[in-house]
Each structure stands twice: as C-alpha cells, then as structure tokens.
Write a structure and sequence with these properties.
Blueprint (H helix, E strand, L loop, with lengths): L14 E5 H14 L4 H16 L9 H10 L10 E4 L5 E4 L6 H18 L1 E7 L7 H10 L2 E8 L23 E8 L2 E7 L6 H10 L8 E2 L5 E2 L2 H5 L3 E2 L5 H17 L8 E8 L6 H16 L15 H9 L3 E5 H15 L1
Parallel strand pairs: 3-4
Antiparallel strand pairs: 1-12, 2-3, 4-11, 5-6, 5-11, 6-7, 8-9, 8-10
Helix pairs in contact: 1-2, 1-11, 4-5
InterPro entries: Mal/L-sulf/L-lact_DH-like_ah, Mal/L-sulf/L-lact_DH-like_NADP, Mal/L-sulfo/L-lacto_DH-like_sf, Malate/L-lactate_DH-like
Pfam family, one: Ldh_2
Protein name: Ldh family oxidoreductase
C-alpha cells in the first residue's frame, strides 16, 4: 500500500484497508438488495472499487452511500435496462432508463467504438441516467483499443445548481465534466478527466461522510465567503469554477450542448460522446512513436519548486492501481456506514 493521495484532510490512522474483493462483495449485496439486477450491481461495484484503487476517492467506494440513498428515495430507478435507440433523424441515443449511469456509459463507449470502426468517427447522446462514474476509466479503455474519445455532460442545472459562475456568489451550474482520452506512447493512453468546478462534487460528499475538511479555495458559503466546511455547501453554498473564467466557460459550453442541443435532461446530465478511430488518420505505430516523443518531453521537464516531476494525465491513476495491491484505504467512518447499510438491508 502507498500513502493515500486525497483532498480530504485525514490522517492514515483514520482509514481502514479493505480488500477489493471484500468491498465489491459488500457493494454488490447492497445494490442487489435495493432491487438492481446482478449484472448492474456487479458492474457498478467493480467500477467503484477500481476507481478507489486508482486513487479517485471522490468517485469510488464512498459513492455507494449516495447511490443507495438515491435508489431508496426513488431518484434512481432500479431493475432497468440500458437501450440503444436509433432516432428517425439518424442520431444514436443510449437511454439509461433513469437508473445509475455507469452501465449506460459502458454501453455508450462500446457502441461509439463499434460505430467508429465502420465510419472512422461517431457521435451519440447518453440520456436518462444517474451518476455515470469515473469517465477516465472508460476513456482509458477506449484509448487502449485505439480510439480518441471526447465526452461532455450538461443540463439539469435547475436540480443541480452546484457551481457559481465566475464572478458570481450563487450556484447556478452543474459540475459539467469533460473527458478526453487518446492512445499515448509506451505507458498507455493519455486521459484528461475533469469537472469544470474547482473540486468534484463527490469530494464534498466524501468529506461530509468522513467528517473531514476540504482544501482552501474550493467552496463559498451561502453569503459568498470562502469555506472549507462541506456543510457550507449543503447549507446553500456553492463550488467555485476551476480556473476562474475558463472553468466557467467550459461549464457553460457543457450546458449549451447538454440542454440547448440535446434537449431537457432527466435525472442528471445529458452527455455527448464523440469517438474517432485513430488509425483512420495515422498508422498506429507511427502515432505511438510521435506520442511518446511528446510525452517524453513533458516527463523530462525540470520540476518546479514544490513538485517531484511533471506528470502525464492518466498515468497517475494507472500507477496507483498497480501500487494499491488490490487494497483500498477507506475512511473508517465511511466504511462503517457502508457496512451498517448492508447489515440494515439484510435484516
């Protein structure tokens, strides 16, 4: 095990090491008892565990608590199937049936790649889904199979007014993520997966669950004042946009695509996924050599004060997964809540 890289202000002795197998077994039991099919329960549990093992705590095992609450209160549908729909206009839509969005996003990436094999490029919409997990995992897989993918989400800002626009003191936008993945060099794909907010919404839920504070400069309270307390967000505060006007601009573009172009969204965001077959443009080995030259220049850059090295997006997550030894360092308070949830559903 390596030290946990986290935005939560927690000491290592406030965490418990849980094997991937134990975590998956517990989560599968929870999701099945809440009415999901065994296939959906396994898909979601494996995704959450692998996300935690990759060091992305905000989108990992702790999400079990949020998903379970949403399934219990009817926000998320259970026992539903994902459907691929061809519209009369020729557009392709992946419909998640109002359920958890991870299986729908798996289907969307697979469909997008299948379409791009035939035509070189494809575009499809993903609708009617709940939270769709860590998009970097899907983009990484597509990159390994030779595809460039661009995915952006937006819409439903009336139900998810989480992020203040640049210069504003009130949450008006969702976190509207972007994810871009492309085949890289010798160390695998380059994957850029980010919320347009200063911090992903999942970190706020993770901090609340663990009883932790958040980093400076991420939140404002209901009066527009800076705060590190996750409860400030739940009491009418907001997340700040990443990079000021640039994050706000990307979030606004996500809203224009997700709502103005794709139409009214239900549950959470609408998504647009564009997939390109890279060897349609350049032979695979030549692209890999050129990519490695670019990435080597980045890695060999002298580090600035306070940094150990220059990193390539996507490599940290893959390295962390290998170093994890299939053991997840979960905040003790969070793991206790998950175990209590499983026990309560069993009763």
């Amino acid at each position: 095990m390596t030290a946990t890289r986290s935005k939560l202000d927690l000491q290592e002795d406030q965490r418990v090491n849980v094997s991937k197998a134990e975590a998956v077994s517990c989560m599968v039991a929870i999701f099945e008892r809440l009415g999901n099919t065994p296939e959906v329960a396994r898909c979601v549990a494996e995704h959450l565990a692998e996300t935690s093992l990759s060091g992305m705590e905000s989108h990992g095992v702790m999400r079990t608590l949020q998903y379970a609450e949403q399934m219990q209160n009817g926000y998320l549908s259970v026992g539903v199937d994902t459907q691929v729909i061809r519209a009369p206009s020729g557009a392709t839509h992946v419909d998640g049936g109002g359920g958890i969005g991870i299986p729908a996003m798996v289907q969307a990436y697979e469909t997008g790649m299948q379409m791009a094999v035939r035509t070189g490029v494809s575009a499809l919409a993903i609708r009617n889904v709940g939270h769709t997990g860590r998009h970097g995992a899907f983009a990484d897989k597509a990159g390994q199979e030779g595809f460039l993918t661009i995915c952006v989400g937006g819409g439903n800002r009336k139900n998810w007014p989480q992020v203040a626009p640049h210069g504003g003191a009130k949450g008006l936008l969702p976190t509207n993520p972007w994810c871009i993945g492309i085949p890289g060099g010798a160390r695998g794909p380059v994957v850029l997966d980010f919320a347009t907010s200063k911090i992903a919404g999942g970190w706020i839920y993770a901090a609340r669950s663990a009883g932790a504070q958040l980093p400076d400069g991420c939140l404002i309270d209901r009066d527009g004042n800076p705060s590190r307390d996750p409860e400030a967000y739940f009491s009418g505060g907001a997340i700040l946009p990443a990079g000021g006007h640039k994050g706000y601009g990307l979030a606004l573009m996500g809203e224009m695509i997700g709502e103005a172009m794709l139409g009214p969204s239900s549950t959470e965001c609408n998504w647009l996924l564009v997939t390109l077959r890279c060897d349609h443009f350049r032979e695979t080995s030549a692209m890999e050599v050129a990519a490695e030259a670019v990435l080597s220049d980045m890695r060999n850059c002298p580090p600035a004060p306070g940094f150990d090295c220059v990193e390539v997006p996507g490599e940290r997550e893959r390295d962390q997964y290998v170093k994890s030894g299939d053991r997840i360092a979960i905040p003790k308070a969070t793991w206790r809540q998950i175990q209590e949830l499983e026990a309560g559903l069993k009763a």
